[in-house]
């Protein structure tokens, strides 16, 4: 069988275009599985996966755990707030103690950028990055691109806008890498204070005009304002942000063509999107959630294959 070119999933920048297409093809098969009456396969029956979440998470954690259960893996769940980390134990000691219990794969979310890369160089288990600080969130980018492929037939040649809090988003960076590898044109849009200065060097367009960006794009992937990561004010108020950068039904109705709307969640309704936009026929937000399970099943399966 085909395998990935890497034994870890630390970031999209480590994947080849062939790797991404292999993940998509594998996810196609698993999407059929999760829509059957019996939703489990024994693919990871002898594999133990540890979910290490050092930050709060609902969608990503549940999605990974469901993917692991669908593949019949044994699961160990770890939460930092109730662990020895709160007593001062280091990340490496924590992981090594878990691996001593014969864990094969680690899914980790950590507030420090580079934590997963650090770990991958020091342990024998396969590491899957479920989000490291403001760095990358590779499985989210994969499921976003997969959802675009599912709705529009292809990613190549499509114009994709990423709108919102680019500065604090790990989703934005992973999406840029993934979409570019698949041949899409990418534009980021938001207040000047929320777009890092290095983004033009990544080969993406930069805009501060939401209406013009919506008229340009085929797909708008809208990011939430991450207030929990903001230690200073980047804009006067959420009300003013919505006035200048929020997307409303009236704005979509004024466009000359339909666009696809996406959001990685959780949605701040009334800030980046109004409810009638989030729940509209153009929105594929719930399809993203469903596709997330299939993509994570594919990643787990392909990384586990090299252990056989």
Binned strand content? 5-15%
Overall outline: globular
Second rung of CATH, namely the architecture of the largest domain: 3-Layer(aba) Sandwich
Taking pLDDT < 50 over at least 5 consecutive residues as the criterion, the unreliable ranges are: none
Q: Strand arrangement, largest sheet?
A: 7-6-5-8-9
Helix/strand class: alpha/beta
* Rg estimate, integer Å: 19 Å
Q: How much helix is in the residues?
A: 25-40%
The name of the CATH superfamily of the largest domain reads: Aspartate/ornithine carbamoyltransferase
Count of DSSP H/I helices: 11
Features:
alpha/beta, 11 helices, Rossmann fold, 4-stranded parallel beta sheet, 15% strand, 5-stranded parallel beta sheet, globular
Overview of the structural elements:
This protein has 308 residues and is an alpha/beta fold. The chain has 2 domains: 12-136 and 289-305, Rossmann fold (3-Layer(aba) Sandwich); 138-284, Aspartate/ornithine carbamoyltransferase (Rossmann fold), CATH 3.40.50.1370. The protein is 38% helix and 15% strand. The protein contains 11 helices and 9 strands. The protein has helices at residues 17-34, 59-70, 91-99, 115-120, 138-152, 170-181, 210-216, 238-245, 249-253, 275-278, 285-305, and strands at 48-53, 74-79, 105-110, 126-132, 159-163, 185-189, 205-207, 219-222, 260-262. The strands form 2 sheets. A 5-stranded parallel sheet has the order 7-6-5-8-9, with helices on both faces. A 4-stranded parallel sheet has the order 2-1-3-4. Helix 2 crosses helix 11, helix 5 (138-152) crosses helix 6 and helix 5 (138-152) packs across helix 11 (285-305). The chain is globular. 43% of the residues are buried. The mean pLDDT is 91.
């Amino acid at each position: 069988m085909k395998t990935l070119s890497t034994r870890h999933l630390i970031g999209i920048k480590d994947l080849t275009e062939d790797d991404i297409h292999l993940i998509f093809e594998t996810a196609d098969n698993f999407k059929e599985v999760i829509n059957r009456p019996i939703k489990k396969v024994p693919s990871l029956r002898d594999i133990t996966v540890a979910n290490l979440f050092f930050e709060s998470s609902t969608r990503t954690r549940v999605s990974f755990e469901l993917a692991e259960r669908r593949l019949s893996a044994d699961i160990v769940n770890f939460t930092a707030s109730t662990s020895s980390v709160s007593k001062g134990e280091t990340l490496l000691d924590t992981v090594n103690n878990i691996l001593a219990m014969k864990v094969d794969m680690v899914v980790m979310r950590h507030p420090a950028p580079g934590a997963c890369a650090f770990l991958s160089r020091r342990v024998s288990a396969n590491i899957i990055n479920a989000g490291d600080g403001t760095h990358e969130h590779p499985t989210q980018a994969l499921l976003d691109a997969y959802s675009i492929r599912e709705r529009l037939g292809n990613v190549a040649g499509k114009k994709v806008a990423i709108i919102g809090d680019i500065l604090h988003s790990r989703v934005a960076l992973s999406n840029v890498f993934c979409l570019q590898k698949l041949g899409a044109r990418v534009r980021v849009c938001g207040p000047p204070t929320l777009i890092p200065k290095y983004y033009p060097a990544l080969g993406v367009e930069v805009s501060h005009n939401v209406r013009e960006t919506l008229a340009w794009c085929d797909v708008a992937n809208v990011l939430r304002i991450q207030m929990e990561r903001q230690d200073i004010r980047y804009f006067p108020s959420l009300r003013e942000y919505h006035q200048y950068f929020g997307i409303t039904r009236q704005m979509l109705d004024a466009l000359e063509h339909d666009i696809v709307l996406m959001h990685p969640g959780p949605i701040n309704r009334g800030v980046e999107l109004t409810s009638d936009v989030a729940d509209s026929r153009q929105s594929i937000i719930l399809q993203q959630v469903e596709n997330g399970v299939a993509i994570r099943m594919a990643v787990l399966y392909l990384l586990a294959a090299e252990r056989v």
